[in-house]
C-alpha cells in the first residue's frame, strides 16, 4: 500500500472556503476550549485552521490533516448541503484517505462506502 504524498492541494474558491470554515466553526471553538483546558484528546489542527492557510487552496500536509478534511467535507454541514464542490473535493482525496483510514471512507459519506 502506498501512502499519500504531501502536500495535497485542493483548488477551491474563497467563497467556498469561507462557507466551509463557517460550517466547521463550532467544532473549532470546541477544540480551542479543549486545548485551553489541556485535554489530551484535543485535535492538533482543525479544518478551520487548515483552510486559513491560503485564500483559494486547501493545503493538506499530513495524514491527520487528510483525515480531518475528509471527515469535515463528508460529515459536516457543508457535506449535508450536498454541495457539489464539496463532493468534487471528496472525489479528489477519497483514494488517499482510504489508504490511511479505510473505515473512515467506508463510513462517510452516508455509510455508502464510496
Mind explaining what this structure looks like?
It is globular and about 35 Å long. By secondary structure, it is mostly helical. It is 60% helix and 7% strand. Strands 1-2 form a two-stranded antiparallel ribbon. It has helices at residues 14-36, 47-51, 63-75, 77-80, 84-100, 102-107; strands at residues 8-11, 57-60. 28% of the residues are buried. It has one domain. It contains six helices and two strands, in the order E-H-H-E-H-H-H-H. Helix 3 packs across helix 5. The mean pLDDT is 85.
Q: Give the spatial strand order of the biggest sheet.
A: 1-2
What composes the largest sheet?
2 strands, antiparallel
Shape: globular
Order of helices and strands: EHHEHHHH
Beta-strand segment tally: 2
Round the mean pLDDT to the nearest integer and report it: 85
Which structural class do the helices and strands define? mainly alpha
Number of helices: 6
> How much strand content do the residues show?
5-15%
Low-confidence stretches: none
Distance between the termini: 19 Å
Q: How helix-rich are the residues, as a percent range?
A: 55-70%
Task: Furnish the topology, listing elements before pairings.
Blueprint: E1 8-11, H1 14-36, H2 47-51, E2 57-60, H3 63-75, H4 77-80, H5 84-100, H6 102-107
Antiparallel strand pairs: 1-2
